[in-house]
Automatic annotation (TrEMBL):
Keywords: Hydrolase, Membrane, Transmembrane, Transmembrane helix
Keyword Phosphoprotein attributed: no
Domain of life (superkingdom): Bacteria
Calcium keyword on record: no
One Gene Ontology MF term: hydrolase activity
Pfam families: YdjM (PF04307)
Ranges that cross the membrane: 66-85, 91-113, 133-154, 160-179
Protein name: Metal-dependent hydrolase
InterPro entries, per database record: Transcription_regulator, YdjM-like
């Protein structure tokens, strides 16, 4: 999820904690829990320091990695609870520990629910876990929290307010998960292709982005669940990964970082004035006609790397169109 949602959920958990009589009866404990849930709801993303120290490429590979793992869940909880406990007196450390744990746990869980995923099962596996049924920013989830905060200010009964809000949220999550599985089955039935189907949530319950990868082709489109339709927006023939510019560019460290946690990467090669530009574009993240999440490498004529970059790169629309139109077909509807 995005940072604003993690912050909102931190405050929401602090409100829910008032259901605990110990929290409701002790303002010091309530304040400590508030600090613990807000910071705990954001702690796993403190791996942003990797970007500052090691650069964007290393951050692209390791963001939501070790910091979202099983050991990190307990280390974040213990470290934050201990540090928060120090300046307070007459509070229950165990209560603080439990609510901080809940905040860290929910951060990691909600990150698994979206397309980017996490390595939450480390150290048992480094596989990226992603359930793909909640968008990175969900306006319904944010709206629920805003309503809760308003009611909190009016009624001063945050425990019961957020108890009912999180029941609604739980029902919403279950609904979204069920609809996402139905959308995949609909796409499989309509496309009738042998390949890998990956659903990508949008802010709508009934419109889902999708990528279908076969041995030779990528199909990118939308599943319209209510209309029972699959619309293929872009159709990309796979690039030969053995071509010299691709082979040489793939050795670049930024590209290797990018490929470590990217799926459905379409390769685009374009001749430039001084050599080649090679891109690996993650087709899961489409914004209208653009695919901004990529690794890009500039090569000289002798295939020496001039520069490279990875992450969210918004190229001028005209240049993006020039590169994409050579590798895609017109949209079709099943």
């Amino acid at each position: 999820m995005d940072t604003s949602t993690h912050i909102a959920m931190g405050f929401g958990l602090a409100g829910l904690s008032y259901l605990d009589p110990a929290v409701a009866a002790n303002p010091n404990l309530a304040n400590a829990v508030l600090i613990g849930t807000v910071i705990g709801s954001n702690a796993p993303d403190f791996d942003y320091i990797i970007k500052l120290l090691k650069g964007n490429g290393m951050y692209t590979e390791h963001h939501r990695g070790v910091s979202h793992s099983i050991p990190a869940l307990f280390l974040w909880t213990a470290a934050l609870s201990f540090l928060i406990y120090l300046p307070f007196s007459d509070i229950s450390f165990f209560t603080l520990l439990c609510w901080t744990f809940a905040a860290v746990f929910l951060h990691i869980a909600f990150d698994i629910f979206n397309s980017y995923g996490t390595q939450a099962a480390r150290p048992f596996t480094k596989k990226w876990l992603s359930l793909n049924f909640i968008p990175l920013f969900d306006p319904f989830i944010m709206a629920l929290h805003i309503i809760g905060f308003i009611l909190w200010m009016i009624t001063f009964s945050p425990g019961f307010i957020f108890f009912y809000i999180y029941i609604i949220l739980f029902i919403y999550l279950i609904t979204r998960f069920i609809l996402s599985r139905k959308a995949i089955r609909l796409a499989e039935r309509l496309a009738d292709l042998n390949g890998v189907y990956t659903i990508i949530p949008t802010q709508s319950l009934f419109h889902w982005d999708i990528v279908i990868e076969t041995d030779t082709v990528f199909f990118v489109g939308m599943v319209h669940y209510r209309q029972q339709k699959l619309k293929v927006i872009h159709h990309f023939e796979k690039m030969n990964a053995e071509e010299a510019p691709v082979l040489m560019a793939s050795k670049d460290q930024n590209v290797q970082h990018f490929l470590a946690n990217s799926d459905h990467t379409h390769i685009i090669v374009q001749r430039t004035e001084h050599g080649f530009e090679v891109r690996w574009v993650d087709l899961r993240f489409r914004f209208k006609e653009d695919y901004p999440y990529m690794a890009t490498v500039l090569l000289a004529d002798n295939y020496e790397v001039i520069s490279s970059h990875t992450g969210w790169i918004h190229k001028p629309k005209k240049k993006q169109e020039q590169m994409l139109k050579k590798t895609r077909s017109q949209s079709t509807t099943f």
